[in-house]
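Tokens in:
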């Protein structure tokens, strides 16, 4: 496991590059949940791609995802910020009980749709609940994604470290980036380091100084630190 402490710095989240375009995107794959979100395309030739899912209380317009998608597009990636099926069904509120399997199938549909648009590697990730569902999907289907981008992974409910959400970690077979705020109540850095030892594949943990579970909410130096960490991870050669 690689561990990096990311000290926020005041630099543009997009690295000063050209961000390309962003437009609404919808697809209706046969046999899977509908795909809905916003597609960011780079200004130049497309390389790899990444699908990003929101947290339990958010949607594809979450400021953290918007800022990150813009930074990734500026770095030459195609990015789909997708609304999970539970959010497509209801405009607000947390996911109802029992919807997580369909949300994972929605992520599968989104990744397969993006693969039709971009020939390079396809990564999967998300913030909190969205990242957790991405990791569960990757554990069940190790060939689906080239890697995982997990933002503020909800290691356990706040103040309940006895209920870890790590049972699937030993089945993860792809490289994973964990970006975590040092003040995140859903798991301390020490707890997360111990949990990552369960994963047999390469992992990188980036700790964002001063950040809580929202990782800066797409604003300021913390959000810039998140973008730099993800751009660096996705820019590594296969």
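Residues out:
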């Amino acid at each position: 496991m690689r561990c990096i402490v990311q000290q926020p710095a005041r630099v543009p989240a997009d690295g000063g590059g050209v961000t390309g375009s962003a437009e609404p995107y919808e697809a209706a794959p046969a046999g899977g949940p509908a795909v809905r979100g916003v597609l960011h395309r780079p200004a130049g030739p497309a390389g790899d791609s990444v699908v990003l899912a929101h947290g339990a209380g958010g949607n594809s317009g979450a400021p953290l995802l918007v800022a990150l998608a813009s930074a990734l597009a500026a770095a030459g990636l195609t990015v789909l910020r997708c609304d999970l099926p539970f959010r497509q069904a209801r405009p607000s509120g947390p996911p109802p009980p029992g919807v997580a399997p369909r949300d994972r199938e929605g992520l599968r549909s989104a990744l397969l749709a993006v693969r039709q648009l971009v020939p390079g590697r396809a990564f999967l990730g998300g913030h909190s609940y969205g990242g957790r569902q991405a990791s569960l999907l990757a554990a069940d289907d190790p060939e689906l994604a080239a890697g995982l981008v997990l933002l503020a992974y909800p290691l356990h409910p706040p103040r309940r470290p006895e209920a870890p959400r790590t049972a699937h970690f030993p089945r993860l077979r792809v490289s994973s980036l964990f970006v975590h705020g040092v003040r995140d109540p859903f798991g301390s850095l020490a707890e997360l380091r111990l949990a990552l030892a369960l994963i047999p594949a390469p992992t990188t943990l980036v700790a964002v100084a001063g950040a809580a579970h929202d990782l800066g909410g797409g604003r300021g130096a913390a959000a810039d630190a998140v973008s730099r960490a993800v751009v660096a991870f996705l820019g590594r050669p296969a």
